[in-house]
Amino acid sequence: MRQLLSSLVETGTRRKLTGKLGTTVKTCAALIAIAVIYTTTVVYIDLFVMTVVFLSAILALLFLMYTAGPNGRLDRPSAMDWLFSVASIVVGIYFFVESGRIAERITLLFPLETPDLVAASVLLALTIEATRRTVGVGLTSVVSVFVLYNLFGHSLPAGLGFREVSYNHFLDIMMFTTDGLFGVPLRVAATYAFLFVLFGTFLSRAGGADFFYNFASSLAGRKVGGPAKISVISSGLYGTMSGSPTSDVVTTGSITIPIMQRLGYSKPLSGSVEVAASTGGSLLPPVMGSAAFIMAEYTGIDYRDIAIAGIVPALLYYLCVYTQIHLRSRKMGLGGLNADEIPKMRTTLSNGGLFIIPLVALSVALILGYSPTYVAAIATLVVLIVSAVKPSTRMSVRDVWDALGETTLRMVAVVAACAAAGLVIGGISMTGLGGKFADLVFLLSGNSTILVLVISAMLAIILGMGMPTPSAFILAAVLVGPTLNSLDFSLMQTNMFILYFAVLSAMTPPVAVAAFAAAAIADAKPLSIAVGAVRLAITAFIVPFAFMYGDGLLLNGSWIDISTACITAGIGVILLSIGIEGFWKDSLTTQARIGFGVSGLLFIFPSTAAIVAGVILFIVSMLMTPHLRFRMKLSS
C-alpha cells in the first residue's frame, strides 16, 4: 500500500548542475525572467505567441534539470534529455515562425498541414513527459486518461460517449487555440504567477524570509508552545508568497521542525504543525498563491475582490490552528524558547522592519485596482528600493541576477503542471464532460444541496491529490464548477469553495504531498503527519460550507450580517478547537468535549435558533468542566 501511495507522488530527481552547463542554465533562466517582465509590463505581445515561446523555453530547461526517474544521473543530462530539450526549442521556433498563419487560419475549417501535425504531436508528448518528471504519476495519469477519452470516448455508452473526435480535430483544438494547452493555466503561469513568485524570491533573497521568522519569534517565542506558534506565523507569511504548501514546508520547516522537536514536540506533531501552517499560506491574502490568479482569470472575478473575500476564512483557519497548538502545548506542559534564543522585537524591526513596506504596497495596489501583473511588479520594485536602504540587506547586481534565475527555476514544475491542466480543460470542453459530470453528481445526491456540496468537496480533494495547487483548482473548477454554478450560489462562493478544497488536498490523506515533504524533515510517517495536520486545520473543512450558506464570511452583505457572521464564527472556531483538543485549563470529560464541539459548530453556522442553542450548550459544557466544578465545590 505504501509503495502504491509513494508512486502517486514519485517524480524525477532535480539535478544540481555545475560548471559551464550549470552557469548556462542559470543564465538562460535569468534571461527568461527578464523576457517575462518585459513582455508583461512594457510591451504587448500576442498571448498565443508569448505562451508558446515561454513553454518552449521552460521545457528546454526542464529536461536538463530533471532526470527521467528517481535513479537517473544527477551530474549531467543524458542523451535523451538533450534530445528532448532540443526538440522543445525546435518546436517552439516552429510555432513562433508560423504564428501569423496560425492566427489567421480558421480552426477546424482549414486543415492542418503535415508539419503542423508533427510539431503538435511532439509538443503534446513533451508536455506529458515533463509532467511525469516534475509532478509525478498522478497528474500524468489524469492527463493520459483524458487524452484517451477524447480520442476513443465515442465508443462508450450514450451517458458518457460523444461524437467521434479525430486525431487532427483533437490536435487542432488542443494545440492551435487558447482552449487547450495554451489556455488559462499556462497564461497565468506566464504572467501573474511568474511575477508573484519573482516578488517572493526577491523578498526572500533580500532577507525578508529571515525577518518574518525573527518577527514571529519575537512575537510568540516566549509564549506557551512558542516554537509551534512561530511555525504558524512564519509559515503563513511565507506561504502566502510561495503559493506552494510543499515548497513552504521544505523552506520554513527545515528551521521550525527541528526546533519544535528539541523542545519536546513529538516527530509527527512537529510535522503536522508545519504542514497545517504551510498549507494555509495558499489561502492567506494578499497573494493566496497562484491558484487565486487562475481563479481570477478563469471566472472573470477581479483578483482584488478574491483577496478581500478570502481574508476572514483565512484568519479563521489560522485561529483554529493557533488555538489548538496553544491548548495542546498547555496540556503537554510545553513552554516557549529560552530568552537568549528570542530576538528582541526592537532589533528585529530595526534590522528588517522595512520589509513590511512591500506587503503594504502590494495590498494598497490591489485595493486601488491595479492588475495583478502590475501589483506584483510594483511590489518587487519596492523590495529592491527598501533593500537598498541598509548595506546588510542591499542586493547587488549579482544577487538580482541570481534571483531572476531562481524565479524561473522555481516555476519549471508549476509550468509543466499548468500546461497539463490546460490539456485536461480542453478535453473536458471538447467532449462536454462537465455537463455529464454535473448530472452524475445530482443523481448521486438526490438533488440535496448539502450532499452536492459534500460530494463536490470530496471530488475536489481527490482530483487534487498529488498535484500542485493551481492544477488541483483548475481541474476541480472545470469538473465540479458547473455542478455548483447550477445551484443558487454566487460565482465567488462556488469558486472559493472549490479553491479551499483544492488547497486542502495538499495535506489530506492518503496522498498528502505536503506531509510527504515534512516526513523527510521530521523523520515521521507521512500518514501520521497528514492526519495530525487535518485535525489542526479542521476548521478549513467546515468554514467553506458556512460561507456557502451565508456569505457574510466573504465580506458580502450588510455590516450587521458581516459582523454577526465573523464574530460568531470566531467564537465557534475557538469552541470547536477546545472540543477537539479536550482541554480548557484542564482535561475535559467526553461529554464536555462533545458539548464544546457541537456548540462551536452551531456558532459557525449562525441563525437565531443556532446561536441560542449554542449558548445553552456552551453553558452546560462549561458546568461539566473539571476546573469550574472544582471552583463551585470550593465556593459551596
UniProtKB/TrEMBL annotation:
Example of a GO cellular component annotation carried by this entry: plasma membrane
Domain TRAP C4-dicarboxylate transport system permease DctM subunit: 124-550
Superkingdom per UniProt: Bacteria
Protein name in UniProt: TRAP transporter, 4TM/12TM fusion protein
Listed GO MF terms: transmembrane transporter activity
Keywords from the UniProt entry: Cell inner membrane, Cell membrane, Membrane, Transmembrane, Transmembrane helix, Transport
Pfam family, one: DctM
Location of the protein in the cell: Cell inner membrane
Organism in which the protein naturally occurs: Marinobacterium lutimaris
Mode of membrane association: Multi-pass membrane protein
InterPro entries: DctM (IPR010656), TRAP_DctM-Dct_fused (IPR011853)
Function: Part of the tripartite ATP-independent periplasmic (TRAP) transport system.
Residue ranges of the TM segments: 21-41, 47-67, 79-97, 109-128, 135-152, 184-203, 306-327, 374-391, 412-434, 440-465, 472-491, 497-522, 529-550, 562-584, 596-624
